[in-house]
Amino acid sequence: MERIEQRACFGGWQEVYRHHSSALDCDMTFAIYLPPQAGHGPVPVLYWLSGLTCSEQNFITKAGAQRYAAEHGIAIVCPDTSPRGDGVADADGYDLGKGAGFYVDATQAPWAAHYRMHDYVVRELPALVEANFPVTDARAISGHSMGGHGALVAALRNPGRYRSVSAFAPIVAPSQVPWGEKAFAAYLGDEREAWARYDATALVSGELRERLPLLVDQGTADEFLSQQLRPELLHVACETHGHPLTLRMQPGHDHSYYFIASFIGEHVAHHAAALHR
Amino acid sequence: MERIEQRACFGGWQEVYRHHSSALDCDMTFAIYLPPQAGHGPVPVLYWLSGLTCSEQNFITKAGAQRYAAEHGIAIVCPDTSPRGDGVADADGYDLGKGAGFYVDATQAPWAAHYRMHDYVVRELPALVEANFPVTDARAISGHSMGGHGALVAALRNPGRYRSVSAFAPIVAPSQVPWGEKAFAAYLGDEREAWARYDATALVSGELRERLPLLVDQGTADEFLSQQLRPELLHVACETHGHPLTLRMQPGHDHSYYFIASFIGEHVAHHAAALHR
Lengths: 277, 277
Prior knowledge:
Two copies of one chain form a homodimer. The first copy, chain A, has helices spanning 57-62, 66-72, 117-132, 146-157, 178-188, 192-196, 200-203, 225-229, 231-241, 257-275, and strands at 2-9, 12-21, 26-34, 43-49, 75-79, 135-143, 164-168, 214-219, 245-250. The model of chain A has no long low-confidence stretch (mean pLDDT 97). Helix content of chain A is 35%, strand content 23%. Chain A is α/β, with parallel strands linked by helices. The first copy, chain A, has one domain: Alpha/Beta hydrolase fold, catalytic domain (Rossmann fold), CATH 3.40.50. In chain A, strands 1-2-3-5-4-6-7-8-9 form a nine-stranded mixed sheet, sandwiched between helices. Chains A and B meet through β1 and α10 of A and β1 and α10 of B.
């Protein structure tokens, strides 16, 4: 593991590392914000999953989350959004291939060789982080858009692994919207049962799911709201199956980082309360 | 004037406009953050001047200042850093020409035709903003690097025009460092007397200057500290001439937006106190 960036920020350090991922069979970068409290003892970790086209850089440069992480004494880890490198399969378009891993473990050629982002995010990266940084194994997870989908699925599929989960403008029902249908058909094949295991709206109807309450913020002026995000599908599923959901429709907000920046402080506080419990 | 971006942010609006500048004789873009309080009555304005290579976008996407502006009820206006467009002279290198206007009114060919950023920032842009937005004529000014130089010079040269001034990692003595020597020779010619009128360290020795106290933050790990920024030159000039200066050396901080983000809240509070007085 090699440190490639280190910047003082709100009394702590914003760092970026490169390492070889065995889950993805390629080199990966991830970012970690270590708050000032990490200088005195281990701190819990919030994992942040970014959306389509993003790398580990978008959240750390645009969300302004470090201030809140420093206030609450939590680290924030941001992985990249797909495997990377010359040997990794890619596709035309921003919504499949590099930058568009959808946080699934692909089963179909040519994707299965590297696209195992669920395994990477849920298992390999936390193990690496917990072995190499002053952090505890108390974990929370959040994300935006494709990453909001990833965060909800990571939490729902892995009971006990996270203390809290939230999402900004998540793709709540990828099996039912164009972004998800394109990606899941490529990565997972035609069997819809395989898709349901990576679909938050489908997962909340399952018996073995995590029961954590879901905190979701969604802008009402989001340009992807009605075709790709469709939070009402998650709302209905949670109502039907008794899963706790706080869905906040935020007037006037779009899909951008201005939306994330406006509410990330409340999400960090939400996660900090669970992580420090 | 045409609005080209509008995004909800911390209860207010982050907007970007395009207009024709008569000072610069070209089309320009600028950003304005209107806090929630601007919906109920006019608010004072902090002008932010960015550094080399920047546009109006860098500060609004990376500094996280909107939160503080919303807390304190002030607008923030961010101009571009040079004239723009196909008809505008440019040069090789990031430190002269487009993206590197140095906030001077050029007197030399080919620059004099468009490079009048001092006039634009101090006179034309505030007049445009005050005529078209719910703002008062209470003004503050700040900036980073080349923009920190621009902010200090704008305030020192224009007594009574600003209520407060601050800077992050400013080029405090452009006449004495490579960035400034290259730019000033091109824009202002060989006469060093002309340079002194755009040099904060030289201006604090003048009799007709603004007497406002200067607030300057400077990272100790800034990669440009010893060759281009040299805050000790301003410190000595202020000591010699009795100009109030608060120079804060911030341990471990570099020249990046992580540095700005870490302290912009304190600067906004500093300006808000003067603007609401």
